[in-house]
Every structure is written in structure tokens, then in C-alpha cells.
Amino acid sequence: MRPSHDDSRTAAQGGPVSPAPGEFPVPAPQPDGSYSVYPYQGLGPGRPAPAKRTVRSRAMIVSGALAVVLGAAAVLLPAQYVVESPGPTFNTLGSAGDSEIIEIEGRRSYPTKGELDLTTVYVSGGPSTNISIFQAVGGWANNDDVVYPTEFLYAPGTTSDEVDEENAAAMTSSQESAVAAALTQLDIPFTQELTVAAVVEGSPAEGVLQAGDTVTAVGDTLIDGIDSLRAVLNDGGGSAAEITVRRDGNEVTESVTPRQSDSGVYQLGIELATSFEFPFEVSIGAGMEQVGGPSAGMMFALGIVDRLTPEPLTGGRHFAGTGTIDAAGNVGPIGGIRQKLIGASDAGAEYFLAPADNCGEVVGHIPDGLEVVKVSTLDEAVQAVEKLAAGGSAADLPQCTP
Fold first, then answer.
1. Domain boundaries in the chain?
2. Distance separating alpha carbons of residues 94 and 377, to the nearest angstrom
3. What is the DSSP string of 205-220?
4. pTM for this prediction
5. What's the CATH superfamily of 191-277?
6. Which candidate in 85, 124, 295, 345 is catalytic?
7. Alpha-carbon span 369 to 354, nearest angstrom
8. What is the pLDDT of residues 378-393, one digit of tens each?
9. Which of 340, 345, 376, 393 is catalytic?
10. What average pLDDT is seen over the chain?
11. Does domain 86-121+158-187+279-396 have CATH number 3.30.420.10?
């Protein structure tokens, strides 16, 4: 946040101007009975104060007071804007405070070198904090910042507690997905379960499946993740599917006929939550309690891959990046990438790994000295880091182009 400044001014007020001796002209009476207005006060003994001057003076005092009140309100009341600024970076191979950002127990890990920075955006305003109009104007004037109307980022009525809870949940989910993606990349087996979080009203599953059901099989196909569920439903071509779920400790089989969506895939009409069981413990994010959201997923996954690989992945080079990740290793777009590019450059990064779906915002906003490589999957990110660490050129890797 930037300190506000006060552009208000106070005017020196002088006393009434006294006329020179002998300069007391008799005010000329007007048709309405009032007197002409003079550029000074006091018309001499026995001379009445001009009525028009009194009315005008009162109007000026009232309007001046109103201007002061409105000006103070503009300065003191919070502006309905959000300012995004470049935030700090965190090396996923290093530590935050007294703790390593990635800790692995129950499996051998290896020394690393170089940096794999996750990047952040500092957000001022919105439900969590208030900003003044001067801070909003300062954001517009600063090329490193972006200013949005509050309602562009937050639904009306959203509270700061709701924002904090959502960001914390997204961070936890991204960490679990990062572990799953890293283990998938390294061919280390693990298990995952799909649990019905909610049943969509009017969907094929309504009245058949229940929130809390864990999907274990469709027909004879065991379900070990969202990809296997999607595949078996699409292979069925819309025919009735025998869904086996674990419900209240018992296995139950229900028949549901999937419905084809506008995109051509077959769906049951349920919202799913994924839980994982890994063969060893991976703890992520110690010392980063103030960082939330899902956008660090890819960099967490890269850090885990490096820690579980005998040879250092980076070759001692300085990488930064951003992007969501799912258990299958797909990299997704994020917000605030312009500020993250600046933050990475300020931290001394040589290379930046950007989600392919963010390329439209990357073009034209790359800081001098920073080379950007676009990636769509964790595998592409790993290959890019390995090639650059070995002395390859970023120009030979996928780029964000106009």
C-alpha cells in the first residue's frame, strides 16, 4: 500500500479592508429598498449594512462549508476500487522464516540449488482493506499497478472473512494438487477418491446420488480420479451407467443416465471433491500464512519434482512463474500476471514460466531482461527448466506471441 497524501489547502483569511479616511460614499438606494454592495465593510456611523451583501456572504459561507465537508468525505471515505501491485516472491526450494517451504518426510529427498520462485500480487482495497481516493489515483498513475472497481473482483456483500476463507481453501487445494501432479510426473503411485460434494438440481443424479457419496466404480471400471470417471462416461455414449458409491460405510450401486453437455461430454450432474492418499508426507507453505489462492500450484509442483530428483533441476539458474495445477498436471491461468512479471524481474529472475492461457496479458508487458516461456502442463514446465538449465535458449521454447 502507498501512503496517502493530503492535497487540501488552507487559505489565509485577512480582516476587513478599511477604507481610507473620507471615502464613505453614500450607498445608492436600489428599487427593492436595499443598498449597493461595496468592496469593503463598514459604511460609517449610522449607515446600514447592505442587505444583498449579507445574503451573498451567508451563501458563500454555506457553500464553502459544504465544499469542505464533501472534500473531507472524498478523502476519508474508502474508495470503491482495488489496486493490484507486484508482491513478494518465494523460492519454493528455500525457506520462509524458520521453515522450509517444501518439507518431505518418509521418502528420500535431494539437495537443490538455484531458485524456483512463486510470484504473488499485493491487493489493496476490497472487502479485506479500505483504500483512500488518493491511493486509487496513485494506482492509476503507477504503471506497475492495475486498478479495478471492487465489484469487478468481488461479488456484492462479500466479507473479508469470506475472502480469507476462500483464499485459504484454494491454497490448500492447490498444494494437494501440486503433490499429486508431481508424483504423477515422477511415476510415483498414489490413490485419490472422488466424493460427491453436491447434486445439481434437475440433473440426472438428483434423487439418486447423495452428497457424501464416494464414487468407487462405474460398471466394471474402478474410478481413481476425475479423468477415469470422465472417460468411462464418454465411452458409454449416454447409456445408463451403474455407479458404485461408498455411502455410510456400505457399497451401494445406483443407475444414472448421463446427460450430454453443450461441449459434447457426458455428465452426471454432480459436483465432486477430490481427496488424496500419498505414500509419504509432503508439507507445503510453512511461513507463507499470508499468501492465499491457487496460483502457486505449478511452482509448488516443480519444487517437489526438484526435491525428489537426484540432480538439481535448475542447474543453479533463477526461475520464476505462476499457474494453477490439477492432479493430472494441467496448468491453468491466473490473475495479476503483469504484476507477477514485474515482481519476478525485481527479484532477479532470469526466466518466467507463464500459463499459455495468460499469453494475451503477457505480450507487451515483459520487463527488460526477463525471458518468458509459455507452458500448458507440468511436463512442459519441467522440460523447459531442464533445457534452460543445460544452457538452451528460451527462443527455442514455446513463446507468448502477439
1. 45-77, 86-121+158-187+279-396, 191-277
2. 23
3. TTTTS-TT-EEEEETT
4. 0.73
5. PDZ domain (2.30.42.10)
6. 295
7. 16
8. 999 999 999 999 999 9
9. 340
10. 83
11. no
